[in-house]
Amino acid sequence: MRISRCTASNHGRASGRTLLGLVLLLVLAALAAWWYFAPHTLPGFVQRRLPESPKANPPLYEWRDAQGHLHVTDTPPTDRPYKILHFDPKANVLPAGVAPGK
């Protein structure tokens, strides 16, 4: 019968790998949350390589209240008809270094 001993160096390596794995998992979770909740704040080179986040271009809802005033909101009204609007977030955006009107 062989008895294995856990030396301090083996224990240190195992806990170091566990800690590294936990840190990597937390970094990946933070990056995924950043991509999902604030994709417009990611650097351009990252945005071009990742698929579009569902939060990147949410629909807007256009509707009129009882007085006929036009409203545009991110949640649809429950008691009246509405139109779903989609917009291109890159429309009317000038490239860096280009002055308006040129």
Give the amount of beta strand, in percent: 5-15%
Distance between the termini: 84 Å
Q: Specify the overall morphology.
A: elongated
Poorly predicted parts? none
Tell me the domain tally. 2
List the quaternary state of the chains: single chain
Spell out the helices and strands N to C.
Answer: HHEEE
Key descriptive features of the protein:
2 domains, three-stranded antiparallel sheet, alpha+beta, 102 residues
Can I get a quick summary?
The chain is of the alpha+beta class. It contains two helices and three strands.
Tell me what the structure shows.
- With 102 residues, the chain is an alpha+beta fold.
- It folds into 2 domains: 7-52, no CATH class; 57-102, no CATH class.
- It is built from 2 helices and 3 strands, in the order H-H-E-E-E.
- Strand 1 (60-64) and strand 2 form a beta hairpin.
- 0% of the residues are buried.
- The model has no long low-confidence stretch (mean pLDDT 81).
